[in-house]
Amino acid sequence: MLKKLLFFLMVALIAFSCSQEKKEYTIAFYNVENLFDTINDPDTRDDDFTPEGKLEYTAERYQKKLTNLSSVLSSINKNSFPAIIGLCEIENRSVLDALIGQDKLKDAEYGIAHTDSPDARGIDCALLYKKNEFKYLNHNTIGIHFPNEPNFKTRDILYVQGILGAADTLNIFVNHWPSRIGGMEKSEKNRVFVAEQLKLAVNKLQEKNPKAKIIIMGDFNDEPNNKSAEEALAATNNTNTSNPKALYNLMYDLKLEGKGTYNYKGNWNMLDNLIVSNSLISNTDGIHTNHKSGRIFTEEWICYKNPDGLSLPSRSYAGPRYFGGYSDHFPVYFQLSR
């Protein structure tokens, strides 16, 4: 009888120990540099990305793009697929279906959250999520309507809500803010306006629940210390706060170290940002991360060396010249732990 009791106690202890094992989830974002199909959409400016267009975008080039991107996304974490992946510069739902169906990604069994944006080129934001780790609840968009430029169209902000693991509700915003075309200073007001619309949405969530767990990811076309991110969105690198509503930019300190995700004329720019509410840092009972968790994926095989020996993102195109690379941006990621 005593032996049986000891046996059951051992089984119970082992089960308890297993239940207490640390669980990690990789959260990633990637500007994939124009993931288009080869079909001409008469409602958007996608003519270049057709076999007859000036980029000579053939089925073979499209397939190589899909293969390349799937190689990157499946390699960010060598132990498991990312639980959540934000994407921008994707054309439509069909390219997402094709991407998650690639050999290197299909075992992840990703779900898709996506809506078409009014962007003139037809590019959108999207979210991929592992269906066995993230329980999708809903998604919608924040439409961007510039009051003084009613004809200026940009990407919607994608908002996705779901439950990661067993109990933690995440609120995720995927962004692709207006570009710097025309000059950084001249175009800054547009990015500030988008940041303000995002901040309104974040405030609304936090009014209902000050401890709401929020992740903001995206290509801001601005850096962590620019006005749009640091002032309008109020995402900083201030670690001296216990306010769960504060927003912390995980890429800020990497920017200060001189690192970046996009290289323009030899200069690194941290355009791809990962921001979390302090409720994901200060609360260690559920899922959480830390101030130093931001990472840039810069493996040599997704790079090329310029004449100065600098390793830069190996891109698909530079103007009309085809290089057959991955993207002109590096992916960024961090870990959430339970």
Automatic annotation (TrEMBL):
<protein>
    <recommendedName>
        <fullName>Endonuclease/exonuclease/phosphatase domain-containing protein</fullName>
    </recommendedName>
</protein>
<dbReference type="InterPro" id="IPR005135">
    <property type="entry name" value="Endo/exonuclease/phosphatase"/>
</dbReference>
<dbReference type="GO" id="GO:0003824">
    <property type="term" value="F:catalytic activity"/>
</dbReference>
<keyword id="KW-0732">Signal</keyword>
<feature type="signal peptide">
    <location>
        <begin position="1"/>
        <end position="19"/>
    </location>
</feature>
<feature type="domain" description="Endonuclease/exonuclease/phosphatase">
    <location>
        <begin position="26"/>
        <end position="337"/>
    </location>
</feature>
<dbReference type="InterPro" id="IPR036691">
    <property type="entry name" value="Endo/exonu/phosph_ase_sf"/>
</dbReference>
<dbReference type="Pfam" id="PF19580">
    <property type="entry name" value="Exo_endo_phos_3"/>
</dbReference>
